[in-house]
Amino acid sequence: MAANLSRNGPALQEAYVRVVTEKSPTDWALFTYEGNSNDVRVAGTGEGGLEEMVEELNSGKVMYAFCRVKDPNSGLPKFVLINWTGEGVNDVRKGACASHVSTMASFLKGAHVTINARAEEDVEPECIMQKVARASGANYTFHRESGRFQDTGPQAPVGSVYQKTNAVSEIKRVGKDSFWAKAEKEEENRRLEEKRRAEQERQRLEEERRERELREAARREQRYQEQSAGGEASLQRKCEQQDEAPRNREEQEPVCQQSAHPREVFKQKERATSTTLVSSCQPGKLKSPFLQKQLTQPELPLGGELHATSWPQAGLHEQSAASTPPCPAQAGEEAVYEEPPVQDALYEEPPMVQLQDAGAQHADSYPSSLE
Predict the structure, then answer these.
(1) Number of domains within the chain
(2) For residues 267 and 237, what is the distance between their CA atoms, to the nearest angstrom?
(3) Under a CB-based contact definition with an 8 Å cutoff, are residues 54 and 124 in contact?
(4) Cβ(15)–Cβ(29) under 8 Å?
(5) Boundaries of domain holding 73
(6) Which residues fall in a compositionally biased region of kind Basic and acidic residues (predicted)?
(7) Positive or negative CA dihedral for 134, 136, 140, 145?
(8) Do the Cβ atoms of 64 and 82 come closer than 8 Å?
(9) In angstroms, rounded to a whole number, what is the distance separating the alpha carbons of residues 53 and 82?
(10) Which of 163, 212, 309, 329 could join 257 in a cystine, given CB atoms 3.0 to 4.6 angstroms apart?
């Protein structure tokens, strides 16, 4: 519950004003509660300073003291607020009065130092004055320093550093200042111009680089399109050449090869083989020793005529065989189906027909020889 200041308000206000007034002899006022209530009343006032006020503090009560003292450093009046809580006060009362401290501080305005005390050691005058001196902020005594500023007599004239203005030097100084200001301004303009030129050069290079990249990209695109078109054209030409190659081969092949049939090729081979066999069976000298002996006798003119007549026939067959030009397909088949050569035997029998003719000739010539 809050402290009640309205019940004894005029007395409280009067005691506070008497302490605050500098010309008033009252320098302290003590406040406490009426019994166990929260009504604040004036416990006492005095003019004896801190020593007198400390003697009035009761260890069994909660009290508030407001004192006026002199600052030991400056000599100016300072106000001290003491929140006294005796050692004999029970804890319940302490807790109830703890919230009244801010209320009493608002009522007793202007306190420079606030002290929370529980024992007599906390409210000794020397301890309180030390706290006031530390709270002043400076070790300064107004009355002690005031003697330094007393007028002790006439003083000497005040010195001065004033110099007469020289027009020439002033003009030179102003001209020099203006020259350096102008030079600084020109230097600033030069730096700005260089920066502007550098920026323009950078933009120009950037533009050239961009244009060069665009040209290179266009050139690469054109080259890629040309390569694509050339690749498609070459592929089309290859396809056309592959399609035309079989047709050209068919056109270049002879008619006999185009119309050749395996059966016809076999028949042509058979005819060629039979012709070769017939042409190879030609009359001639027998390799048999007995027949060679009979055929080589000079008494047999018919045999010589037979040989003479048989040789032209063989030559005729060979000429006819040589004069007949073989077909290209037949020549290719002969080359494919070429038979291995047959080795000549030591003894070769003549054909039966010719042997019969020879026997008849020998029979005809034998009687003539007998005759």
Answers:
(1) 1
(2) 43
(3) yes
(4) yes
(5) 9-139
(6) 185-224, 235-252, 261-272
(7) negative
(8) yes
(9) 11
(10) 329
Asked whether 33 and 42 are in contact (CB, 8 A), the reply is no
| Contacts (Cβ under 8 Å, ≥6 apart) of 68 | 19, 20, 27, 28, 77, 78, 79, 80
**CA–CA dist 66, 115 (Å, integer):** 11
- What is the full per-residue pLDDT of the chain (371 aa) written as tens digits? 678 888 888 999 999 999 999 888 999 999 999 888 888 999 899 988 888 888 888 888 899 999 999 888 888 889 999 999 888 888 888 888 888 888 888 888 888 899 998 888 888 889 989 888 888 765 555 555 555 555 555 666 666 676 777 777 778 878 888 888 888 999 999 999 999 999 999 999 999 999 999 999 999 998 888 888 877 777 778 777 777 777 777 666 554 454 556 777 777 778 777 665 555 545 554 455 555 555 555 544 444 444 444 444 444 344 444 444 444 444 444 444 455 554 444 445 555 544 444 444 444 444 444 44
**Pairwise CA distance, residues 65 & 84, whole Å:** 8
323: exposed, middle or buried (C-beta count within 10 Å: 0-12, 13-18, 19+)? exposed
pTM, entire model: 0.39
CATH number at residue 103: 3.40.20.10
Is 99 exposed, middle or buried, given 0-12, 13-18 or 19+ CB atoms closer than 10 A? exposed
- Asked if the structure places residue 39 within a domain, the reply is yes
Query: What is the chain's length?
Result: 371
